Automatic annotation (TrEMBL):
The chain crosses the membrane at residues 12-35, 41-58, 78-97, 109-129, 149-171. It is found in: Membrane. InterPro entries: Cation_efflux, Cation_efflux_CTD, Cation_efflux_CTD_sf, Cation_efflux_TM, Cation_efflux_TMD_sf, CDF_Transporter. Gene3D superfamilies: Cation efflux protein transmembrane domain (1.20.1510.10), Cation efflux protein, cytoplasmic domain (3.30.70.1350). Residues 207-284 form the Cation efflux protein cytoplasmic domain. The gene is fieF_3. It comes from Deinococcus carri. Residues 10-202 form the Cation efflux protein transmembrane domain. This is Ferrous-iron efflux pump FieF.
Amino acid sequence: MDRTIRLAQYSLLLGLLILGLKGGAYVLTGSVALYSDALESIINVVAAGAALFALSIARRPADADHPYGHAKAEYFSAVLEGVLIVLAAFSILYSAYQDLQAPKPLEALGLGLLVSLGATLLNAGYGLYLIRTGRQLRSPALVADGQHLMTDVVTSGGVLVGLGLVAVTGWTILDPVMAMLVALNILWVGWRLVGTSLRSLLDEAAPPETQALIRRLVAEHAEGALEAHDLRTRHAGRLTFIDFHLVVPEHLTVGQAHAICDRLEQVIEQEVPESEVTIHVEPESAAKHRGVLVL
């Protein structure tokens, strides 16, 4: 089974476990802050399911209707997660406002805090692992899922601090106040996640360091050619698409030019993982005397 699919499955199972723990903490205490925490856990479960579905689509091979593959499906999952985070934040703000008007006493606070702390530690460990592994595997869906879990960790941390202050001071009004502060943080994270995913859907170019690496590889390994120009890159999920024009001397045969292209494609795809290279060969008369000069 694909590693990204397996990690997404674990994320869904963890989300269900965390939801049970935080839901129990809310039932025990009646805290609106813990309610906000449990509500975000429901969002985590839905988002994990969406990520799993998107990853299963993204891993499908190219076909007649999708000749470039299905990798962009991951970005739709990331956008959905961002939208769900934003909706959760507004729901928390509404509940906190209602509780602010009429603060109510909290029950079994110590046990509720202990349950919430355990759930938070589980989320933190797996969230950091998903972000690190998702970046290694170049999976936007896994990275977004990990960021979502870390948002939940921030939420839970704020809730724990606020309820700890309630336990010490007896000021129950701190419960909805902390829920509001947490909701504003969630809103900011969700907005950033949506923006990042939408930029990727618009064929954002590879990072500058990746483009510099490609230019260096062309300069060093295109022996027999003269120059390369009009380099373009774009991301689609885990894939990086690369294309450029390669100028060769007029006397080269088609077979000789093709051999240069094969050599370049092999080198670039080895140094830039999960990349697909397309090279357009041009005669010397089409040289623009800019771009990459072959060493």
